[in-house]
Amino acid sequence: MNIHVLSLFPDMFSGVFGASILKKAQEKGAVKLEVTDIRTFSGNKHNQVDDYPYGGGAGMVLKPEPMFQAVETITAGKQPRIILMCPQGERFTQKKAEELAQEKELVFLCGHYEGYDERIRQHLVTDEISIGDFVLTGGELGAMTVIDSIVRLLPGVLGQEDSHIQDSFSTGLLEHPHYTRPAEFRGMTVPDILLSGNHAKIAQWREEQSLQRTFERRPDLLEHYPLTDKQKLYIEKLKNNQQDA
């Protein structure tokens, strides 16, 4: 996969792209990450890429020319998804990450100031994404988050091919608790079932823990999750216990 980022502050990406999973993914050839300064396509000696908004108002707006020129240059002969990081965009989810992980080419547009010229939104981008109902100084941090969630899904990136499948939200539920050595630490012990060696019982425990954690922390996820009859009975048990408490 090729991922290209257009930003006014490209240096922000060097640390994130040069460490951990993103670094390993590039070394393995699973992804190519490139960041370009939007000012490179300003077309003027002052490298100006923003201007005052028509109609007045506070702040500056990113001009259309540099962004169109940058995208057209980068994507010549290609048809990538053009992703605008924007608080008005659709809420980013694991499902969206899985969808984008199927693409070969992605371009992320990171803006600053008051916003983008609307013609960028209407005639250039294919997707608008928000990572939450809050406002950041620019789109860079959001783009890093989205890119990380996509790249870790690519084949060969994680140590175990099925690691991401068990992650919270990948299955539609929150992930079950994890424990490692030592079995006892300061009086805190690992659940006996995990030490039993009974893989069927362990799988059942993990499923129940996942359901319980989702029920307690994100019950909204259960509204659209295809619960089995057995899982429905367990959720009813949790509800009854909650009412009795």
UniProtKB/TrEMBL annotation:
InterPro entries linked to this entry: Alpha/beta_knot_MTases, tRNA_m1G_MeTrfase_C_sf, tRNA_m1G_MeTrfase_TrmD, tRNA_m1G_MTases_N, tRNA_MeTrfase_TRMD/TRM10
Species this protein is from: Lysinibacillus macroides
Family: Belongs to the RNA methyltransferase TrmD family.
Gene name of the record: trmD
Alphabetic keyword roster: Cytoplasm, Methyltransferase, S-adenosyl-L-methionine, Transferase, tRNA processing
Pfam family, one: tRNA_m1G_MT
Catalytic activity: guanosine(37) in tRNA + S-adenosyl-L-methionine = N(1)-methylguanosine(37) in tRNA + S-adenosyl-L-homocysteine + H(+)
Superkingdom of source: Bacteria
Domain (tRNA methyltransferase TRMD/TRM10-type): residue spans on this chain: 1-223
Subcellular location: Cytoplasm
Major localization class: cytoplasm
Molecular function per GO: tRNA (guanine(37)-N1)-methyltransferase activity
Protein name: tRNA (guanine-N(1)-)-methyltransferase
